[in-house]
Amino acid sequence: MSYYKIQNLEHYFKMYKKSVREPKKFWDKIADENFVWYQKWDKVFDVNMQEAQFKWFLDAKVNITKNCIDRHLARRGDKTAIIFEPNNPEEEALHISYNELYKRVSKMANVLREQGVKKGDRVCIYLPMIPELAVAVLACARIGAIHSVIFAGFSASAVAARIQDCECSMVITSDGGYRGEKTINLKGIIDEALEKCPTVEKVLMVKRTHETVPMKDGRDIWLQPLLDNALDNNVAEIMDAEDPLFILYTSGSTGKPKGMLHTTAGYMVYTGYTFKNVFNYEENDIFWCTADIGWITGHSYILYGPLLNGATTVIFEGVPSYPDFSRFWEVIEKHNVTQFYTAPTAIRALAKENLDYVQRFPLSSLKVIGSVGEPINEEAWHWYNDHVGGKRCPLVDTWWQTETGGIMISPIPFVTPTKPTYASLPLPGIQPVLMDELRNEIEGNQVTGSLCIKFPWPSIARTIWGDHQRYKETYFTAFPGKYFTGDGALRDEVGYYRITGRVDDVVIVSGHNLGTAPIEDAINEHPAVAESAIVGFPHDIKGNALYGFIILKEVGESRDRNNLAKEINQLVSDQIGPIAKLDKIQFVSGLPKTRSGKIMRRILRKIAEGDFSNFGDISTLLNPEIVDEIKDNRV
Ligand code: WT7
Questions:
Q1: Ligand 1 site, residue 518, Cβ cutoff 6 A
Q2: Does residue 292 line the site of ligand 1, with CB under 6 A?
Q3: I want to staple 53 with a disulfide (CB 3.0 to 4.6 A). Which of 48, 139, 142, 572 is the partner?
């Protein structure tokens, strides 16, 4: 039986056992039989959890774009690789064949080389969800440049911090982008960001909106004329298995964003394998993941995973609410989408609208539906399962992270029986464990603990760009010898996993990972603010929203509180992005602190939630009287 495609539950258990007992043999076979290599590996892996050192497919030579594009040309040259569905439904959708994709990526790769980009250089891509974004990413991979895609919703200072951190020499952006009713001014944000980014020498400009934008002489260049003059074939760079493929930033519970580094071969093998299995991908399927390519979900399951399998993948520029709340369902019908992969926050937002928006569409092309980004609550699970999946499409609740590169825990459709709110079982090769507070592994079932992974897998992030020490400390010290995910989980009586949420100071808002510390840092820059503490609280649509407890300086005391709150949110929006705005702001005279000066966030979380039943032990607080004051003035 094939190693690549899991056929039934018995096969799953067999493969799972093999992957644990003989991981080298397991991954060797998958890598060998399903990808094209310039040169195979000497050793499948060389790993050390203590030191956070991971090498996979040692000394193999490969280019991921040869696997995503070139190798399909003989059999699938005319097949559609990418369907582009524009924001405006009146604008025609674009079908880009594998042949066409090859030409576009080749041209872009040639342009990048002509413009001086070399293997190992970092290229920042700040683009809306248009085909050029996919082409730019693949062109970087083609020539061995390290792409660092930044979600086109981040503010200038967030963009600047990311560009500075990995010292990009080039930025690829556009004159703007469309999202629903809005036009976003990407170039303005880049211009502001680049004032503080001396390493950037060139900005390649894509035309999307035809807005007039200022062009800086000697730095900014329109891309189209360069592409028109470029050759439409390109010899791919020969990459080592462990050469960096991309950097993608994710929030930490403290400090600046972490540039997670993924390398070539392991990422390729794992995303290809998981795409095939988790979505039950078959030739002629039309796959649609609604994430943005600016997040890991888009990297792995809009681009790399589908293209590695020669699939047709949809790139959607718009939003679920434009022109109305049936847009998702309309697009599924229009393109006969077979697999649909979205986030619980989108499901909840759509579920609160009139049922007619979805019921008007038979959605009979759908085969599998998926969820990602945060725990999916029971109500949303059933709504999605009933009204979108028609109770006939398996719903795969996929748990994973930017750091893991690919899906880790998920049902396999038509194989693993699903259970509402459960991500269910680990994929082959993944060994989850639950740990207690004493750092012991919790055996048996019907238990909860901190979710760790005790054995490496091919697409584990290799480091945090420029800070390996931080990588080790963040993920490999809390539970020595294990990778700590930052999530809590429950294991039920049959061994299914349910992710219960973050156990650190990260809050997932509308599926976006936000560290509370950087938001607090932004707020504290306001001249009237002395100190602040941010916590998450449950929100019907966003999953979580942010609640800020803020202590004012004397200068702030006399100011109008509404105006202050507005200014503070503007500051957060400028520094991080609108997504990080606080839903609630409460001005307080103090924060509950332990004797060692640590804010007791669990009390603030309870107050934000409106749960005053039991604050637990507050005897270690320096100022227990503050709890009542904060509670009584909750907003
Ligand atoms: C965090 C990672 C990986 C895709 C997008 C998010 C939460 C992700 C699930 C799920 C419960 C989930 C976790 C995780 N999360 N998927 N199916 N059920 N929680 O990537 O931004 O790196 O965030 O998202 O808390 O640690 P990310």
A1: no
A2: no
A3: 48
